[in-house]
Automatic annotation (TrEMBL):
<feature type="compositionally biased region" description="Basic and acidic residues">
    <location>
        <begin position="37"/>
        <end position="62"/>
    </location>
</feature>
<dbReference type="InterPro" id="IPR016653">
    <property type="entry name" value="TRM10/TRM10A"/>
</dbReference>
<dbReference type="InterPro" id="IPR028564">
    <property type="entry name" value="MT_TRM10-typ"/>
</dbReference>
<feature type="region of interest" description="Disordered">
    <location>
        <begin position="1"/>
        <end position="101"/>
    </location>
</feature>
<feature type="region of interest" description="Disordered">
    <location>
        <begin position="290"/>
        <end position="316"/>
    </location>
</feature>
<feature type="domain" description="SAM-dependent MTase TRM10-type">
    <location>
        <begin position="92"/>
        <end position="288"/>
    </location>
</feature>
<protein>
    <recommendedName>
        <fullName>tRNA (guanine(9)-N1)-methyltransferase</fullName>
        <ecNumber>2.1.1.221</ecNumber>
    </recommendedName>
</protein>
<dbReference type="GO" id="GO:0002939">
    <property type="term" value="P:tRNA N1-guanine methylation"/>
</dbReference>
<dbReference type="GO" id="GO:0000049">
    <property type="term" value="F:tRNA binding"/>
</dbReference>
<dbReference type="GO" id="GO:0005634">
    <property type="term" value="C:nucleus"/>
</dbReference>
<feature type="compositionally biased region" description="Basic residues">
    <location>
        <begin position="63"/>
        <end position="75"/>
    </location>
</feature>
<dbReference type="GO" id="GO:0052905">
    <property type="term" value="F:tRNA (guanosine(9)-N1)-methyltransferase activity"/>
</dbReference>
<dbReference type="InterPro" id="IPR007356">
    <property type="entry name" value="tRNA_m1G_MeTrfase_euk"/>
</dbReference>
Amino acid sequence: MSTEVPNKKKKGIPPSAEEIEARRKQKQFEVIPEGMTKSEWKRQLKQKKWEETKEQYREFQREKKRLQRQRRKERNKQEAEEEEENYHQAKKPSRLPRNQIPTGVTFVMDCDFDDLMNRREIVSMSNQISRCYSAMRHCKYDVGLKITSFNKTLKERFDKDVSQYKLWKGIELNSEQSVEDLINDENRSKFVYLTADTDEEITELLPDHTYIIGGIVDKNRHKELCLNKAKKLGLKVGKLPIGKYIDMNGRHVLATSHVYELCCKWFENDKDWSQAFNEVLPPRKVKGKVDADGTVTIESEDVEESKDTTPSEVPV
């Protein structure tokens, strides 16, 4: 059985106006040989035309493939050059600032959620903490970072696979201290728990204030977790102005590391959220996973948070 698709025209060289006119005149004088059907006569004419033009057609195809190879080669060369340029930009060693500019702002990562995460999520959380530490060390501004409730499974992950954390400088890793231990009646008004479950947007980071980030990766399983903890502790809540700079409808959830990186970049870009978002989450690299309830989990293509790898190139 023939596999040829009926009535599908084969690609080739389109006939010129002169050829079309010549064919029209030829048909006027065509005489079907005696004893031959019209369809057989057409088939022979078609075969004859093919024999006469097949070299021309093959040359056309060869030239077409040559141009395709040339375009592909040029495209590959351009992509290689762009990739090399991006590689050198990414790998270009950056000196750690000697004297960071004080901000009076502190961030606390509340890691009291070990029991709510599986192994892959614990790995992701440890990778995000490493990214936050790297951002803190490279920032021109002193954006304080404390990790509370650093114990149980998360600490075991660090002790086993990220043991260089013991050499980290300028970060507080508290295994005995929890968020509750930092708060009292006198300083309670200076604490803000960041959560996606609020309409209160933070327009600026205030000196002498502490901003708490929920240290959890749960793929949005535990709704209003940080909001409920803030209510329990009697704390103010807020969220970064994500909706103004990321064009996605719904409730926006950022990765823990993105929150801290955005705040560092906010200081470095003269307190401009637009520039901060463009550097940390440029539109070309942003993708959003939409849950059934409309929640948008913001992800970045250049970060594989759940990959079970040991963070590298983290300054100590």
